[in-house]
Amino acid sequence: MKNCSYEEAVMTAVRSGQWSDELLEHRESCLVCAEVTLVASLLITDAESLAAEELSLPDPRLLWFRASLDKRRNVSLRATMLISWMQRATLAVTVGILAFFVPNLLSMFRGAGRQILGSLSLPDLPATVAAPALVLLLTFSTLALMALWNEYAERS
Ligand SMILES: [Zn+2]
Question: Measured between alpha carbons, how far is 58 from 46 in angstroms, rounded to an integer?
Answer without folding.
Answer: 24
